Amino acid sequence: LCFAIAGCALAVRLSDARRDARFCAILGGGLAALASLVLLGHLSKLDFGIDWPSLHAWLRTENASPGRMSAVTATAFLLGGAALLLAPRAHRPMAITAVRLLTLGVGAVGLLGLVGYFVSAHLLFPEYWFTGVAVHTASGLLVFGVGLQLHWKRFGWGQAPLFARD
């Protein structure tokens, strides 16, 4: 569901720039709210009814809440939702930097999840934080990070080079 929301926010372009920014902000806010709810469920050990455990009943794992996305994945979606929410309103250098750092965070979670999977980091580091990110989710988060970076091009500040020459 989070990938579908993120994909709609990045793919849909409306004719009016203000409606486009509002639509993107609504979807970004929904993405951030959903990810926050999952993180709250992880922190409080409560079930908010969004996990769909019956779909994952066949999978025999030690996971206390089957069907719930990992805390790292929820954190990446929270970062991505915040970037979508903030990007249309970023006019000051601090806000622009925040959007770029949030986007970098989404891509970094995807990249570290993939690297951890390919080198079997959980064998070397049992407490590796990115172990809970599935390989297909890590790939999707990496694509989401690239999509967010391409999404910047819609705005004036996103068309300027990241590192300007003197």
Distance between the termini: 44 Å
> Which spans of ≥5 residues are poorly predicted at pLDDT below 50?
none
Which structural category fits the helices and strands? mainly alpha
Topology order in helix (H) and strand (E) letters: HHHHHHH
Q: What would the average pLDDT be, to the nearest integer? A: 84
Number of helices: 7
- What's the main sheet like? none
Evaluate the radius of gyration. 17 Å
Question: If you had to describe this structure to a student in words, what would you say it looks like?
Answer:
With 166 residues, this protein is mainly α. It contains seven helices and no strands. Helix content is 63%, strand content 0%. α1 (2-11) packs parallel to α6 (135-151).
Defining traits:
166 residues; mainly alpha; 7 helices; 0% strand
Reconstruct the topology from this structure.
Elements: H1 2-11, H2 17-44, H3 71-86, H4 93-118, H5 121-124, H6 135-151, H7 156-159
Helix pairs in contact: 1-2, 1-6, 2-3, 3-4, 3-6, 4-6
Short description:
With 166 residues, the protein is mostly helical.
